[in-house]
Design brief:
The complex is a heterodimer of chains A (133) and B (388). Chain A is an alpha+beta fold and 133 residues long. Chain A is built from five helices and three strands. Chain B is 42% helix and 13% strand. In chain B, the strands form three sheets. A seven-stranded mixed beta sheet of chain B has the order 2-8-7-6-5-3-4, sandwiched between helices. A three-stranded antiparallel beta sheet of chain B has the order 9-10-12. The chains are: A alpha+beta (133), B alpha/beta (388).
Chain lengths: 133, 388
C-alpha cells in the first residue's frame, strides 16, 4: 500500500526510476513539443504510425518526477492504439493509470495529454498534406 | 543502506546530550515556572539558566532575551512588535529580497496595513550593498531587517556595516540569525543589531523553541497577551523542556563551533570542487568566500531539481532544491531569482547543507552518486539537444 504521507504513488516512482520509451524516434510521423524550460517542464513526444496505428512512441522530458512518470505512462498507453483511440486519452486517464498524482502535479498530466495531441495533430496534418499533393 | 542527511539548513537532529538535559523537565521537574513552591522554582531556575546561556552566547544580557516558539515567531515579533510600537514615528521598513519567508510574509502583511516596505536587491552572489541601505533610509524609516546569512545560498551579509548605518540614522536594526547562531560567531554588539532571531532546531536543539534578542530600550508592543510571562512581552507558560534544550544546545555549540565550522568548510569546499569537476554545465550559487561553512548550492543545466532530489533520495542522500516543483509552488526560489539566476537554472538547483554527523565518506558518496544521476536525467532531457 502507498504511504498516505508520501508525495507520489509507488507507480509514479516506479515509472520515474525506470521510465519506458525514453529517447527519440528517427524519422517520426508526429512530434509534439510542449512546456517551457522557464516554467520547469518541457515534454517532447514522438510517434511512429503504421496504417493508422501508433506502432511506437518515445519521449524526452525535462521536469519533475511527475512529468517524467506521466510521459512514460502516456507512451505506454498509446502504443498499439489507433490514432483515433489515442486522441481520446485524457490527462485523467494518465493520472488514473499512475494511481493518482498530488493536486499540485496534475498540470504535468495535462502537459502529457497536450504533447500527445500535438504529436497526433502533426501526423494528421502531414497526412492531409500528402493527400493534397 | 545508510542514509546521508545533507539538509541541516532545514533542521538538525537534536543532540543526545540535549535530549538528556530536557528529559527531567517533562516528568520530575514538570512545574510551572510561575508557581512559587519548589516545583515551580526548579522550573524557573532551569528557564533562567537557559536564558543566561543564550544571552552569553551572543554577548547579550539575559534581560534582553525573550524565549519564543522558534525562529519564525522571533522574526514575526521583531517586525510586528517594532512596526506597531513605532507607527507614530514612521511607517517605513527596509528589508531585502532574499529574506526568509518568516520576514518577507510579515512585510507583506504590514504592507497591507499601511506600512511602506523597501525590498533591497542583492548582487549576483546574494550580497546586499550597505550603500543601498543608507540611500533607502528616510525620515519615516523605523526598522531595517537584513538576515545574517541566507538559508538557501549561504551568503553572509555585511550586517556589521549595515548596523553602523542603522545606528547613525537612529533606526532599529533586526537580523534573522537563524542560520548563523551556533555555526559562526555572533555578537550583538559587534553586529550592532537591536533585534536578533534564533531558532533552536537549527543548532541541534529541539523544534518549537527559539529566542528574540531585544536590545534594552527598544520599543516593541507585546506579542502574546495573557499571563504576563517573558516580561509581559510573550505570555504563555514557558516550554520548559525545550528551553532547557536550547540552553544546552548553545552551550555545546560554544564549545565546538570553531573547530566544527573549519571541518565543515573543508567538506563544503571538497564537495563544491568535486561536483564542478565531475559535472559540466553546472554553476555554484552564492558567494565564493562569504559563505556559511556548511552550504553548497549548485544549479545543473538541463535537469530539474525535484527529479535530482528524488533520485538522490533513492540512493539514500537527502538534499533540497529551489525548483518550483520541489517546493510545490508556481515559482522557483525567490532567492535564486534575486541573484539573477535564470529561471531554468533555478529549477535545476540543489542545496546540500552539512552538519556535525557528516564525514568525508558522505561527501564522497555524493561525488560518486550525483554525476550519474545528472547524466541519466540529461539523457532524457530535450533541452540538452537544443543547446548543442
Amino acid at each position: 500500500m502507498t504511504d498516505p504521507w508520501s508525495l507520489y504513488s509507488e507507480k509514479v516512482m516506479e515509472h520515474f526510476k525506470n521510465p519506458r520509451n525514453v529517447g527519440e524516434i528517427e524519422d517520426p510521423d508526429g512530434v509534439g513539443r510542449v512546456g517551457d524550460p522557464v516554467c520547469g517542464d518541457v515534454l517532447e513526444l514522438y510517434i511512429k504510425v503504421n496504417d493508422g496505428t501508433i506502432v511506437d512512441a518515445k519521449f524526452k522530458t525535462f521536469g519533475c518526477a511527475a512529468a517524467i512518470a506521466t510521459s512514460s505512462m502516456v507512451t505506454e498507453m498509446v502504443k498499439g492504439k489507433s490514432v483515433e483511440e489515442a486522441l481520446k486519452i485524457s490527462n485523467k486517464a494518465v493520472v488514473e493509470a499512475l494511481d493518482g498524482l498530488p493536486p499540485a502535479k496534475v498540470h504535468c498530466s495535462v502537459l502529457a495529454e497536450d504533447a500527445l495531441k500535438a504529436a497526433i495533430e502533426g501526423y494528421l496534418g502531414h497526412q492531409k498534406l500528402k493527400k493534397q499533393t | 543502506m545508510r542514509r546521508i542527511y545533507l539538509d541541516h539548513a532545514a533542521t538538525t537532529p537534536t543532540r543526545p546530550e540535549v535530549v538528556k538535559a530536557m528529559l527531567p523537565y517533562f516528568t520530575d521537574a514538570f512545574g510551572n515556572p510561575s508557581s512559587i513552591y519548589s516545583y515551580g522554582q526548579e522550573a524557573r531556575g532551569a528557564v533562567e539558566g537557559a536564558r543566561t546561556r543564550v544571552a552569553e552566547f551572543i554577548g547579550a544580557r539575559s534581560e534582553e532575551i525573550i524565549l519564543t516558539s522558534g525562529g519564525t515567531e522571533a522574526d514575526n515579533y521583531a517586525l510586528k512588535g517594532v512596526a506597531y510600537a513605532n507607527e507614530r514615528k514612521g511607517n517605513h521598513i527596509i528589508t531585502t529580497s532574499i529574506e526568509h519567508r518568516a520576514v518577507l510574509e510579515v512585510c507583506k502583511f504590514l504592507e497591507k496595513r499601511g506600512f511602506k516596505i523597501t525590498y533591497l536587491p542583492v548582487d549576483e552572489y546574494g550580497l546586499v550593498a550597505p550603500d543601498d541601505v543608507k540611500r533607502a533610509i528616510t525620515d519615516k524609516t523605523i526598522l531595517i531587517s537584513v538576515m545574517h546569512a541566507n538559508n538557501e545560498v549561504g551568503t553572509i551579509e555585511p550586517v556589521e556595516e549595515i548596523g553602523k548605518i542603522a545606528r547613525e540614522a537612529g533606526v532599529y536594526f533586526h537580523t534573522d540569525a537563524v542560520q548563523t547562531v551556533g555555526h559562526i560567531p555572533v555578537n550583538v554588539d559587534e553586529l550592532k543589531v537591536d533585534l536578533l532571531a534564533i531558532s533552536g532546531h537549527k543548532l541541534y536543539g529541539p523544534k518549537g523553541v527559539g529566542a528574540l534578542y531585544i536590545r534594552e530600550d527598544t520599543k516593541l508592543v507585546s506579542f502574546m497577551h495573557g499571563g504576563g510571562q517573558e516580561r509581559k512581552c510573550r505570555a504563555g507558560t514557558e516550554n520548559v523542556p525545550a528551553i532547557v534544550g536550547l540552553g544546552r544546545a548553545v552551550e555545546l555549540a560554544g564549545q565546538e563551533m570553531g573547530k566544527e565550522a573549519e571541518r565543515q568548510a573543508y567538506l563544503r569546499d571538497k564537495l563544491i570542487k568535486g561536483l564542478v569537476e565531475k559535472i559540466d554545465h553546472i554553476r555554484v550559487n552564492g558567494h565564493p568566500t562569504k559563505r556559511l561553512p556548511n552550504n553548497v548550492n549548485l544549479s545543473a543545466d538541463f535537469v530539474e531539481g525535484e527529479s535530482l532530489l528524488l533520485s538522490l533520495d533513492s540512493e539514500g542522500i537527502c538534499a533540497s532544491t529551489g525548483s518550483a516543483c520541489g517546493m510545490a509552488s508556481p515559482e522557483p526560489s525567490h532567492v535564486l531569482l534575486a541573484l539573477g539566476v535564470p529561471r531554468e537554472q533555478a529549477h535545476g538547483s540543489l542545496r546540500f547543507t552539512l552538519g556535525r554527523e557528516n564525514t568525508e565518506a558522505d561527501v564522497e558518496r555524493v561525488l560518486e552518486g550525483l554525476p550519474g544521476i545528472v547524466a541519466r536525467l540529461r539523457a532524457m532531457s530535450p533541452l540538452l539537444k537544443t543547446q548543442q
